[in-house]
Amino acid sequence: MTTTKQPLTLTLGDQLRIFGRSGLEQAAWNYPRLQNLGFCYIMIPAIQRLYADQTAQAAAATRHLTSFNTMPYMQSLITGVTLSLEEQRANGHPVSDDEINAVKVGMMGSLAGVADPVWWGTWRPILSAFAASLALSGLGILGPIVFFVGWNVVRLGFRWWAQRWGYRRGVQIVEDLSRGILQKLTLGASIVGMFIMGALVPRWTRISLKPVLVTAHHATYDLQALLDQLLPGLLPLGLTLGCVWLLRRHVKPFWLLLGILGLSILGYWGGLFK
Fold first, then answer.
1. How far apart are CA 127 and CA 84, in angstroms?
2. Using CA atoms, how far apart are residues 183 and 114, in angstroms rounded to an integer?
3. Are the beta carbons of 223 and 213 closer than 8 angstroms?
4. Could you identify which of 121, 139, 173, 274 might form a hypothetical disulfide with 193, taking C-beta atoms 3.0 to 4.6 angstroms apart as the criterion?
């Protein structure tokens, strides 16, 4: 009578413990190998589940002490794929150390490039603008609460989904990402982010002119009212485009802010701004 060896698999509890550790990835950030200690710490529950021998556990931990660095939110996807590879290796599949490290290195750079326009260029401006509008409308503390809850719900939800997706798909996810998904996602996020920032320009940038025009027939026209009727938001748009032009010519943001402050004070004293 022969017995069939049950394949080694990670339980849902193992993946939950790994997910709980993922938020501490940068707690041991270091200059020589960046996030390697944090990634190894994340992998410990999987190593303990898949390898019973202490020598094999030590070898697996050493395998994940190589240099590693990516955007922390995208790390969960890499973790999921790495979990799948470790599981295959523990079950006797020919998966070498170099192959595991090559997958990690290949994914960490491309995913980090996608994360910036998606998280910092799109989701954060949208959520912060909405939260700021709540605060300015008189709801006070509700604005920061909405930002804190909204950001973390999306962040944690995405990280859990990414870890599970990477674990289920394994190395096949590399083929999925190589079909132009990353480029399309980056382009789409950049367009949405620029659209949102453009919509916020007339809302949060306020310039009000003080001069009043007087005609020969003694009729008076408020210059600001005329501009609002002809081209609403023209002055905020011009100021924003001017700042972008200066930034592209390597003017430091500090000097830009100082210049805007000085221009505002002089304009008010000179009767140009209200």
1. 34
2. 8
3. yes
4. 121
pLDDT tens sequence across 28-74? 888 888 888 999 999 999 999 988 888 989 998 999 998 988 888 88
Q: Which of 161, 194, 227 is the last residue of a domain?
A: 194
Please state the separation of Cα 241 from the chain's center in Å: 25
Overall pTM surpassing 0.85 (yes/no): no
Q: Residues 111-134: pLDDT tens digits? A: 887 787 788 877 888 888 888 878
Q: Work out the number of other CB atoms within 10 angstroms of the CB of residue 75.
A: 29
Residues 18 and 126 in one domain: yes
Residues spanned by the domain of 222:
208-270
Identity of residue 222: D
The two three-digit tokens of residue 196, written as one number = 């949102």
Q: Which residue has the tokens 């993946």?
A: 15
Domain total in the chain: 2
Distance from the Cα of residue 264 to its chain's centroid: 33
Place of tokens 């270091």: 30
Tokens of 159: 């990280």
The answer on 178 and 251 residing in a single domain is: no
